[in-house]
Amino acid sequence: MNSRQRRGVILLVLSALCALGAFAGVLSVIGDVKSKVGPEVAAYRIKGDIAPYRTLSPGQFEEIKMPRRWLSDNAVTDLAAVQDKIAVTTLKKGSLLQSDMLAERPELQAGQQEIAIMIDAATGVAGKIRSNDRVNIIATFEGKKDEDPDRSVIIVSNARVINVGKLTPLERSGDRNGPAEAVPITFALDTKDTQRVAYAESFAEHVRLALVAPGGTSTVNPGDRTYTLDGDK
């Protein structure tokens, strides 16, 4: 083997060693990335906007793969979690599904209906009302004529709360004194009381809740349902 051949063999060996070194470097980088990213798991993305209090179904979500370490602890990784659940707030298209977006579908008694209204967070809820609490629903109305007194009316007594939603900012309209934030409250009511609540939400100046003591009942005499300031004179 002459000197030129020896140089060729040496270059081939060096090239092979460089290739092996580069390959080992790539494997090291891939291993490092995998160790930092971790294993992937299934997560679920919302296909389209879902209104609050709607019953959820698996078809409303699409599966995606994400590294487990990038997901929050309350991320849903199994669609069985949506079985018999409702959305507690508006679910936006493209958002990742999380367990705090879901709530158990409340059980209604025979003849009852669900109705949800927005209640002023400052004056009507104050963070104390929870599911299964009992409340009196009070609406205030302006007098129909200038000479008629304003009045407050207990439109429903001992109403059962079945869900308390999330605090929601409200867009101020022309009424600058309106609430800045409200909470959606869902009640289980019979047909007549459902109509009363819907009427009050549409036409009352304000709707407020009065919490009934746990374990107690609130019996309101017919004469005490309506109050006017003149009645205290």
Folded structure, characterized:
There is one protein chain. This protein is α+β, with helices and mostly antiparallel strands. It folds into two domains: 40-104, Type Iii Antifreeze Protein Isoform Hplc 12, CATH 3.90.1210; 113-232, no CATH class. 23% of the residues lie in helices and 30% in strands. The chain contains three helices and eleven strands. Strands 5, 6, 7, 8, 9, 10 and 11 form a seven-stranded antiparallel β-sheet that branches. Strands 1-2 form a two-stranded antiparallel ribbon.
Average pLDDT rating: 79
Largest β sheet strand count, sense and barrel closure: 7 strands, antiparallel
Q: How do the helices and strands follow one another from N- to C-terminus?
A: HEEEEEHEEEEHEE
Total number of helices: 3
Summarize the structure.
With 233 residues, this protein is an alpha+beta fold.
